[in-house]
Amino acid sequence: MRLLSNLPVLIVVLLIGSSHFIAAGQTQSRQIDLVDHQLWIDFYPHFRISDKLEYYGDAGYRTMLVYDAWNRIYIRPSVRYHLNRTFELHAGIGVFYMFDNLGYNRLEITPWQGVQINWPQT
User: Fold this and answer.
1) pLDDT for 73-113, tens place per residue?
2) Closest Cα partner for 107 from 116, 115, 98?
3) What are the tens digits of pLDDT across the range 32-44?
4) Phi then psi for 45, rounded to 5 degrees?
5) What CA–CA distance (Å, rounded) separates 62 from 73?
6) Residues 99 and 105: beta-carbon distance below 8 Å
7) Burial class of residue 7 (count of CB atoms within 10 Å of its CB; 0-12, 13-18, 19+)
8) Which residue, 53, 120, 63, is CA-closest to 91?
9) Does the reported pTM lie above 0.85?
10) 106-117 vs 46-48, strand pairing mode
11) Which of 2, 23, 26, 40 has the fewest CB atoms within 10 Å around its CB?
12) CB 42 within 8 Å of CB 63
């Protein structure tokens, strides 16, 4: 019975884990000698400010190891406001800086917002 309660988590883990093999299969059909090994370093802070307000987000660094083709530094600070047991409001801003060895550097700033519905209530 415990396995059934964790079934959605298991499905998500399997899908994420298999995405590497799906992407590698597509890459190999186009160009045989391309090897895409990436390094991701992520930090996920989470702080409860009050009973209704939380700060969370992530920050990190990502790069391609083999060819050093690109590097990305990012930070996404976010807040969550608990309206009641059913609804939560989320908002944040993502700041991404991507630079590569060809000199095509990009700065991306993406504000976002969302509503979370917690249903069914348990």
Assistant:
1) 999 999 999 999 999 999 999 999 998 877 789 999 999 99
2) 98
3) 455 678 899 999 9
4) -80, 155
5) 7
6) yes
7) exposed
8) 53
9) no
10) unpaired
11) 2
12) no
